[in-house]
Design brief:
The complex is a heterodimer of chains A (284) and B (305). With 284 residues, chain A is mainly α. Helix content of chain A is 77%, strand content 0%. Chain A has two domains: 43 residues; 232 residues, Orthogonal Bundle (MetI-like fold), CATH 1.10.3720. In chain A, helix 3 packs parallel to helix 6 and helix 10 packs antiparallel against helix 11. Chain B has a single domain, classed as MetI-like (MetI-like fold, Orthogonal Bundle). Chain B contains ten helices and two strands, in the order αββααααααααα. Chain B has a two-stranded antiparallel ribbon with strand order 1-2. In chain B, strand 1 and strand 2 form a beta hairpin. In chain B, helix 3 packs antiparallel against helix 5, helix 4 packs across helix 5 and helix 7 packs antiparallel against helix 10. Chain B starts with 5 loop residues before the first helix and ends with a helix. Classes of the chains: A mainly alpha (284), B mainly alpha (305). Chains A and B meet through helix 1, helix 3, helix 4, helix 5 and helix 6 of A and helix 1, helix 2, helix 3, helix 4 and helix 5 of B.
Chain lengths: 284, 305
Amino acid sequence: MKLNYRLIRKIKNQLFMLVIFLSAALVLIPLFLVIKYVFQEGASSLSLSFFTELPKPVGEVGGGMMHAILGTMYIVLLGALIAVPIGITCGIYLCEFSKSKLSKTLKLTVDLMSGIPSIVIGIFAYLMVVVPLKSFSALAGGVALSIIMLPIIIKTSEEILKLVPNHIREAGLALGLPRWKVILFIILKGSISNLLTGIILAISRAAGETAPLLFTAFGNMYLSFDLKKPMATLPVQIYTYAISPFKDWQRQAWAGAFVLMVLILTMNLFARFLLNKIKDKKGF
Amino acid sequence: MVKLNSKTQDALLFYALRFISLLVIGLLLFIIFILFKAAWPAIIHNGLGFIIRTEWNPIENQFGALPFIFGTLVTSFLAVLIATPVSIFVALFISEYLPTQFSRIISTLVEMVAAIPSIVFGLWGIFFLSPLMKSTLAPFLKTYFGYLPIFSGPSFGIGILTASLVLSVMIVPTISSICRSIFELVPQHQKEASYALGSTKFEMIKMAVISPSLSGISSAVVLGLGRALGETMAVTMLIGNSPLISKSVFAPAATMASVMANEYTDANTPLHVASLCYLALLLFLITFLSNLFAKTIVKNFSKIG
């Protein structure tokens, strides 16, 4: 009886291990499937003209997404331009005055903000920018993306600035520097390259967003750099092509997805790599 | 030029930082306010009955949100149901079974899934998963579980189950990475104490790792739910977009996010636009509450830990 009990425990243990290994495989398999499928379909439909040409009229085979690639860069950079200064400032506040009541409220705000569905942010940007300007515009897209980037930048900046050891702050203060100089010229200046990782992370997230751009930047079929006009972006272009009935457009959607994914995963991996390196080095 | 002493300079910086921080907090409140304002005509017109009415017919000015709320909740809960056990097991696999040098690689790989844009998942779902669902998965489920009402009716490839499956793949990294960081908080001596009592690895994990982490795990699940609730593109491409409430998981449906993505640019009556904003406000509130809930659990948890 006793032996039997021991056996059951052992079997349970082995079974559990089996389940765990299986579910790990279960998670990794779809990941591989997605990546493999996108690479397979995307790489085979990729050509030079994809990067250098504008879309051809419906029915004609060929053309590319140059306008959408440039549009994505334009709008993402626009978003970063708005979000980065505000984000880093809030990061400084959270790091340097972490005990204040406002800091705690801000932290909660950041958490809640990163949980807002991106489509709701799209509607907000529509109401704020598109309605008053009476036109879909790149500006509205930039505003929407900046709200998506903001919490990411705030969080990573805080995390990175916290890595600056306290004795460096104290050394600065001991030299008789006012606190603002310590913050600006020692802590911030020393962490600038590290703060870049947070920005890359935020950009990699924003570059893949589709929902907030649907009714802000909207998209078009030609090259445009006008802030007040609709502008094509890679994700929206992929969406439009993916749900279209034309084979050639679907093919291009895959190529677009491939480019977008390579772009985003590279940025993301790069940022992670830097972040790990920074953490190992402890900032300074 | 007045020369400020360093105390005033510091105060200036402090107030500048405070101001920007207040601005960000204000932004969140402002988003709520603007949505509320835009939704106001629909709130007046539809009242709270909006939530329980089932007809959605913009042409005849009938707006009921129940099909969308139903679609959102069902797809998200299904996704969480599928993703939760798997995510916990993966987190255990990474933190307890894998040697350290591998665990970093695998956990990065899993978290990489979170970085894949949802449009790519949608595309994959349309061209890979939904044909697979139609040809293999749905017939399989029908043959073996066809007597259950949830597996009744024909499958067209797209529908609730397809959307939920893709959603579950998307939220696994969220849940498992939080679970992993919680499991890593468990002190080594606690595990050793369990081993010292003669337990097997399974019993050790049950006793020393899972049960003290339960509240943390539940907050991870709620955060995953929050992500699933608000997910737009992948669901829009895969759910079929028809405002129906049906008992079968093969049937097409629509979610709050998907109807916004589909109809917002085409909405031309003010009431239609306002109703969509009402939906946006509701969705915002649901995710807001679920995230707030998760945060409070984490807060209590970290107090104990």
